[in-house]
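tool=predict chain=A
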Amino acid sequence: MAYLSDIEIAQQCEMKHISEIAKVANVDEKYIEQYGRYKAKVDLSLLNETDKKDGKLILVTAITPTPAGEGKTTTTIGLADGLKRIGKNVTVALREPSLGPVFGVKGGAAGGGYAQVVPMEDINLHFTGDFHAIGAANNLLAAMLDNHIQQGNALGIDVRKITWKRCVDMNDRQLRFIVDGMGGKANGVPREDGFDITVASEIMAVFCLANSITDLKERLSRIIVGYTYDDKPVTAGDLKAVGAMTALLKDALKPNLVQTLEGTPAFVHGGPFANIAHGCNSVMATKLALKMGDYTVTEAGFGADLGAEKFLDIKCRMAGLTPDAVVVVATVRALKMHGGLDKKSLNTEDLAALEKGIPNLLRHVSNIKNVYKLPCVVAVNRFPTDTDAEIDFIIKKCRELGVNTVLSTVWAEGGKGGEELAKEVVRLCEEEQGDFTFSYELDQSIEEKIKAVVTKIYGGVGVNIVPSARKQIEQLTALGFDKVPVCIAKTQYSFSDDPTKLGAPEGFEVTVKNVKISAGAGFIVVLTGDILTMPGLPKSPAAERIDVDESGKISGLF
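tool=predict ok
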């Protein structure tokens, strides 16, 4: 049987006009700014002018990812469509894809099969220009910083202590470390510099955590760009850059409204990676979705040790949100890879590999249930090659933790394949009360907070802080930045900071190499292992297979 590709399925969908979707989402037309027929931005004033009670918040997260895939976004969308099919008033809140992975490994990130958000080509490419606006605001600040130094450096900025980087939303390893300002006095001050990918920019985190234009401006003004010769922090506010940066971001801050293949309203907005940033869509989009639906399904990036940890410890803490239920997505294939099986061997039943790999799922589930104390269900994204014995094994192991397992076939069947999962989610919301608890408290020291995440969530025994990072911790503590959450940048492929340690490794330490403040975002970034804030393209990038025909129809996104 020949399967249609994701883009072929999306292109066959007869989309509804965005004004129809707005009606379904209870958004009055006066709040809608249309971007063509199928996309719109929603005016922020709607949040203040609606008195509707918030709906239930469902977080979708997953096991530690493998090349076999786990289908988190697909499950999020399929669950929302499943809730709609069983008669619930539902919205979905997702992140915008970054162009880096679209042209790199992934080739797209708008769901898959019959559980997608559309128009998928637009969402995966320029969409409504939000990421371009974020990149422009980031680079305006960089330009104003270097211009200040060029024009006499009244603030006394030490060019060796500049922390602000330029950014571009593309995987471009060539730009990680550069020297600029070359060519004589008229062309700037020579210095070492570098680029981050746009989604790793602090502007992205500020954008995603701000709850109003005023809050956005206050956060932008606190951004630290570097330090003076006597180690005093220099901010975007000091450089008088905030008004202009906000002007670039004001339209981008409005959440985007699109639809799933089945016409469920989807707020797609913001999008930091959860391995190098906090990995959630914007607070504004989540709050809007909660107001417009009785159930809101959202996702957080990568495995639950990254996206869910940051969603719960950073976003929920800052925005005053509490999830009513959590879905942990797993596949038999990915768990067998965690058990040591090669990708080529995944189509045959192998209970021994599954038994070796399942501790990965069980640790994630235990964290949600026992650390964060939230109701939880495991969604097994079923593949045709999965055997009943393998599925039964997972069900039995999860039941021992007091968690139900539901099969999901949303990739093949859309919302119909998510109905059983939807019913279990509704049951959790109505029958099981969580007692939401963070994994650490803000008044703990920076080191204590890092250690709490490493020991409670990752399952490690402690942290190894290199001397330069320890010095950074001391400096940040002296500056009064020690009472904020920690945002740990770590490989997505392992609970540890070593991507080769699959399953549920034990006895490991996490090495902390760099600690810096994102004062605008309101958290401390902790870089571990060999994590990079500017990815590179793979040997055969997805970009090589993307094309456009004479009529403008795109192929190769998947």
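The chain has a mean pLDDT of 94. DSSP finds 19 helices and 25 strands in the chain.
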